[in-house]
Design goal:
By secondary structure, this protein is of the alpha/beta class. The chain folds into two domains: 194 residues, NAD(P)-binding Rossmann-like Domain (Rossmann fold); 165 residues, NAD(P)-binding Rossmann-like Domain (Rossmann fold). 41% of the residues lie in helices and 15% in strands. The protein contains 15 helices and 15 strands. The strands form three sheets. It has an eight-stranded mixed β-sheet with strand order 3-2-1-4-7-8-9-10, sandwiched between helices. Strands 13-12-11-14-15 form a five-stranded parallel β-sheet. Helix 1 links the parallel strand 1 and strand 2. Helix 11 crosses helix 12 and helix 12 runs parallel beside helix 13. The longest helix is centred in the middle third of the chain and has 32 residues. The protein is elongated and about 80 Å long. 42% of the residues are buried. Bound molecules: nicotinamide-adenine-dinucleotide (NAD) and the ligand CC(=O)N[C@@H]1[C@@H](OP(=O)(O)OP(=O)(O)OC[C@H]2O[C@@H](n3ccc(=O)[nH]c3=O)[C@H](O)[C@@H]2O)O[C@H](CO)[C@@H](O)[C@@H]1O. It comes from Tenebrionibacter intestinalis. This is UDP-N-acetyl-D-mannosamine dehydrogenase. InterPro entries: 6-PGluconate_DH-like_C_sf, NAD(P)-bd_dom_sf, UDP-Glc/GDP-Man, UDP-Glc/GDP-Man_DH_C, UDP-Glc/GDP-Man_DH_C_sf, UDP-Glc/GDP-Man_DH_dimer, UDP-Glc/GDP-Man_DH_N, UDP_ManNAc/GlcNAc_DH.
Length: 420
């Protein structure tokens, strides 16, 4: 049975590329988002986020009549929910957006529909979502009670695309399919095979939920190892990037890179979902979070030390020193500032520094509100010519391309090891 209408709920960094991928295969896609501005932008064939190649695919999909956006759900054959799942309070998963999305689609659910949760979620979330839907539609049967014969099929299918490479990875990555029943998995696999070149790997919903959290926790733990090495190396007077390069010559060693901390919507968040559900067992995962979360504070201390050195050498007053921070995004060559360690470092420096503070971020046009009036957004050349101290926070291509001659005899704090 084919899918006449596919509806994607939540048109952000995950939902919009997914909606566009289906639409590019001549599937009728109705995207739903509570953000009216996002809906209007998409309906003009434009995009409200930065992701390479997404703009052309969305433009073609909208102009071809395959993709449209709206603020309220419609009757569809398949729903994919890709709304935020942040944490709240003491790092507890916040499922309020998923609940709101489920409540929004419940009235328009029809017999035979497939509901897929794509949002990164704690173990048990899919069963919980099925419960929310069932509570609102007692005229339909759901997999929890009716098993294979349910009116509605439900699956958890996590997304694992890398921001910056979403359009390629969306198609090529293998996809974990966690149906609440084998029929649910088969139906979800059928849906993704519309655009997927990778394999659909079938499991149950709870394993699929844990699989997503495991992938990001694995990366977080490995980055924490690199970050811990950077602290040890600083104490021992060893260049950590050279050390890692050498150690990685071992055939079974592959250490990741230290940085100013771990940011983004995922790796700094998802491991907490495991910790919240398993506080006794998840000791290493929790420690990795603590190591990575403490790295911005360590970077700030390095900047303060560089300022002290510069003051002592130059004889200038603190008010006369200009500090330039290169990069606000959470990783290279994207515009996403969410959970960015660079943002928290620059915010704190803005409070502490008495002289001028410059921020260079080639991927944005205006400073986020939090920094407005507290620092000046400028370009690479201006920052290089005016700043006394250079702080490299993100390895954007523009920063890697800076002529080494312009960095000689400067006060530099390089958190990414690209100006060595
Ligand atoms: N961004 C990534 O790299 C990535 C990768 C894998 C998984 N994920 C997961 O995917 C999910 C979505 O992440 P994202 O980065 O796309 O978030 P996002 O914030 O970019 O997009 C979410 C969208 O959902 C909309 N929304 C919120 N509540 C809604 C509702 N009730 N109905 C309709 N729309 C609603 C928001 O307005 C927003 O446009 C999260 O669970 C995230 O952890 C993200
Ligand atoms: C397992 C995995 O790969 N998951 C990916 C991840 O995507 P991401 O974009 O969030 O991931 P990263 O690129 O790792 O960046 C995170 C932060 O870690 C810093 N970092 C990175 C490498 C390093 O060696 N040293 C560092 O310091 C970097 O600067 C940044 O702040 O989560 C998505 C959502 O779930 C997944 O879909 C996607 O597959």
């Amino acid at each position: 049975m084919s899918f006449n209408i596919i509806s994607v709920i939540g048109l952000g960094y995950i939902g919009l590329p997914t909606a566009a991928a289906f639409a590019s295969r001549q599937q009728r896609v109705v995207g739903v988002d509570v953000n009216e501005n996002a809906v209007a932008t998409i309906n003009r064939g434009e995009i409200h986020i930065v992701e390479p190649e997404l703009d052309c695919v969305v433009k073609a999909a909208v102009e071809g009549g395959w993709l449209s956006a709206r603020t309220t759900p419609v009757e569809a054959d398949a729903y994919l929910i890709a709304v935020p799942t942040p944490f709240k309070g003491d790092h507890e998963p916040d499922m309020a957006y998923v609940k709101a999305a489920a409540e929004a689609i419940a009235p328009v659910l029809k017999k035979g529909a497939l509901v897929i949760l794509e949002s990164t979620s704690p173990v048990g979330a899919t069963e919980q979502m099925a419960g929310w839907l069932a509570a609102l539609r007692d005229d339909l049967t759901f997999p929890q009670q009716a098993g294979e014969a349910a009116d509605i099929n439900i699956a958890y299918c996590p997304e694992r695309v890398l921001p910056g490479k979403v359009m390629a990875e969306l198609i090529q990555n293998d996809r974990v399919i966690g149906g609440m029943t084998p029929v649910c998995s088969a139906r979800a696999s059928e849906l993704y095979s519309i655009f997927l070149k990778g394999e659909c790997v079938v499991t149950n919903a709870r394993t699929a939920e844990m699989c997503k959290l495991t992938e990001n926790s694995f990366r977080d733990v490995n980055i924490a190892f690199a970050n811990e090495l950077s602290l040890i190396c600083a104490t021992q007077g060893i260049n950590v990037w050279e050390l890692i390069r050498l150690a990685n010559r071992h055939p079974r060693v592959n250490i990741l890179q230290p940085g100013p901390g771990v940011g983004g919507h995922c790796i700094a968040v998802d491991p907490w979902f495991i910790v919240a559900q398993n506080p006794q067992q998840a000791r290493l995962i929790r420690t990795a979070r603590d190591v990575n979360d403490s790295k911005p504070g360590w970077v700030i201390d390095r900047v303060k030390a560089a300022v002290a050195d510069c003051l002592a050498d130059s004889g200038k007053r603190a008010e006369e020193l200009t500090l330039a921070c290169f990069g606000l995004a959470f990783k290279p060559d994207i515009d996403d500032l969410r959970e960015s360690p660079s943002m928290s470092i620059v915010s704190e420096l803005a409070q502490w520094h008495r002289g001028e503070l410059l921020a260079v971020e080639p991927n944005i046009h205006t400073l986020p509100q939090k920094l407005q009036g507290r620092c000046t957004l400028t370009d690479v050349q201006d920052a290089l010519s005016r700043a006394d101290i250079l702080v490299l926070l993100v390895d954007h291509c523009q920063f890697k391309a800076i002529d080494g001659a312009r960095l000689v005899q400067r006060y530099i704090v390089d958190t990414r090891g690209v100006w060595r």
